[in-house]
Write a sequence for this structure.
């Protein structure tokens, strides 16, 4: 593996290290997470799912999800701190806030009308997943502006803003791109995990570290539904996708390719395209693995870690995540993350 990606944010003193070989945030520092579109996720365990049939679930788990929530949960499980900013329907505040009592996570919320979207996840005994997601409640300019205000009231120079997950209907499609520009003007960095129009606008702005998965990247580049990820061709496809995003204007492109690993493309005179393979683990729960990756990457960049080292830590954190059977059980970092 090449290791030419040495981009760095200004180094901070390590005051909260709890894991061997892992950079930690200063005491009192926190990763700022913009997650505007939370969901109520229902995970149904099935023997087998066949479209058009009637199925009875073996078991059901319910938890609060969405990209921002999943990322904040990962930071908490890594024993670090986060500020999570989200847009939340008033009628669901009590339930959501009660479920999100995460150690080390401060929650800031913008109230809105409607009800929280539902995500239905069908998990078959053989491990295959089928996911149905709702678009979310429609918001107005007033809610989005308050969301922006709550984000930037807490962002300072040299810090990292993580924008993750879908944006709700009514929000500007280039909302994350605007946040990335504003973060740069403050001397901060932005990591964006998004798809579709939101990803395209962020790439065009050229301000953020974009973190799509391979399907999202290939769909954006080709305009058609990509083929299923095959571990044998994933490295080549991910590298090509990362290069393609860079050519479209991305500042740094990080393309995740499931259990295979991650491709990272950086521009400039010292730029390169590198492949970071994932540790081999027995996958029990891939739900939210991409969110776990993005959270760990932002966490390490916030601590001033070199980009390639931050990516390695994020890869092993995502691998540890998929080892956890339950979508809502504690994250067992264990050997993979500590092997850094």
């Amino acid at each position: 593996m090449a290791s030419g990606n040495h981009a760095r944010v200004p180094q901070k003193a390590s005051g909260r290290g709890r894991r061997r070989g892992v950079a930690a945030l200063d005491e009192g520092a926190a990763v700022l997470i913009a997650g505007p579109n939370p969901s109520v996720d229902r995970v149904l365990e099935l023997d087998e799912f066949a479209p058009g049939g009637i199925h009875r679930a073996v078991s059901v788990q319910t938890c609060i999800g969405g990209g921002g929530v999943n990322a904040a949960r990962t930071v908490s499980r890594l024993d670090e701190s986060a500020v999570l900013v989200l847009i939340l329907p008033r009628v669901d505040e009590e339930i959501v806030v009660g479920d999100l009592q995460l150690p080390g996570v401060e929650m800031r919320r913008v109230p809105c009308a409607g009800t929280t979207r539902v995500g239905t996840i069908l998990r078959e005994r053989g491990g295959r997943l089928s996911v149905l997601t709702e678009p979310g409640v429609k918001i107005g300019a007033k809610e989005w502006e308050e969301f922006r205000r709550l984000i930037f009231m807490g962002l300072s120079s040299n810090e990292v803003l993580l924008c993750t997950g879908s944006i709700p209907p009514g929000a500007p499609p280039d909302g994350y791109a605007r946040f990335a520009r504003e973060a740069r003007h403050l001397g901060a960095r932005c990591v964006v995990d998004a798809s579709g129009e939101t990803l395209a606008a962020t790439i065009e702005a050229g301000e953020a570290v974009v973190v799509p998965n391979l399907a999202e990247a290939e769909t954006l580049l080709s305009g058609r539904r990509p083929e299923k990820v095959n571990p044998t061709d994933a490295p080549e496809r991910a590298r090509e996708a990362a290069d393609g995003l860079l050519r479209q204007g991305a500042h740094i492109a990080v393309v995740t390719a499931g259990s295979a690993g991650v491709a990272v493309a950086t521009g400039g005179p010292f730029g390169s395209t590198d492949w970071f393979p994932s540790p081999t683990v027995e996958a029990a729960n891939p739900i939210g693995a991409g969110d776990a990756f993005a959270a760990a990457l932002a966490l390490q960049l916030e601590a001033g870690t070199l980009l390639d080292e931050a990516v390695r830590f994020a890869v092993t954190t995502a691998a540890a995540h998929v080892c956890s059977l339950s979508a809502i059980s504690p994250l067992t970092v264990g050997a993979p993350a500590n092997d850094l």
Observations:
- The longest strand covers residues 39-46.
